[in-house]
Amino acid sequence: xxxxxxxxMHGRVVVVMGVANERSIAWAIAQSLAHAGADLIFxxxxxxxxxxxxxxxxxxxxxxxxxxxxxxxxxxxxxxAFVRERYGVLHGIVHAIAYANKExxxxxxxDTSRSGYALAQDISAYSLVAIAQRLVPLMTQxxxxxxxxxxxxxxxxRNYNVMGVAKAALEASVRYLALDLGVxxxxxxxxxxxxxxxxxxxxxxxxxxxxxxxxxxxxxxRTTDAxxxxxxxxxxxxxxxxxxxxxxxxxxxxxxxxxx
Length: 260
Ligand code: NAD
Ligand code: IMJ
Known about the structure:
The chain is an alpha/beta fold.
């Protein structure tokens, strides 16, 4: 399947943040990167998922695993120290992390608390800045950063609420980071994925109905597969995308272009 893009990432070191299980979009991105020859560093949120991520990473040659809760500056400092000591250089970062309180992802946006708003922004948007601050100094040969976003950043989508506002901040952050980092040869882009049944989609009201809507209305008449997101992230992290920065690329079967 990946025969057309052999070793696009040979000799490239990439940090992949956000694998929780085999359904995670970050895991699909890791598959694409591994097939293209990249060296991968997986980070995981907490001891709760440690064993699962270590078991998954063991399936991939040339990989290592580090704990990193992005709410903790010290954890990100430790990640940077690990990458510096073990690899000496970094070429790519995959940021596939989001979190909001469950109660803020249902009902009315107007009910969002100050602390719920701050939490969603901190984990889902500010974390990209905190990570770039500490890891970009290791991108001494240039590099690329890819994050994950969703259509709820620009359309008011039922229940997405505080996450939509955090994703709007994340996308704006992609543009400002791209402006900062271009002179260093570091590109920053986002992939806006269509709905995919992952842990982050569990318990979302009528997720099944949302998937059916994409099947019915999108130009490609089907839902998004995580492997499609993986291959687009690979493209953005590779030299094939050397002219692209500050951009949001949609991998959503074309759903977002369709009018009523
Ligand atoms: P997922 O639950 O597998 O991944 C989310 C990850 O965020 C998990 O690995 C979790 O451990 C991590 N995380 C949460 N808080 C963290 C913290 N404090 N420190 C470190 N890691 C933390 O679900 P996913 O769908 O693969 O989500 C990945 C990204 O894709 C998210 O940014 C999400 O918003 C985005 N996205 C998902 C969809 C979808 O439909 N699933 C669509 C578009 C965009
Ligand atoms: C999430 C909420 C509401 C509607 C949603 C989603 N739709 C989709 C998602 C339509 C596709 C998934 N998504 C794009 C996300 O970014 C999810 C983020 C998320 C999910 C949870 C669930 C469990 C929890 N906190 C969360 N924080 C962020 O406790």
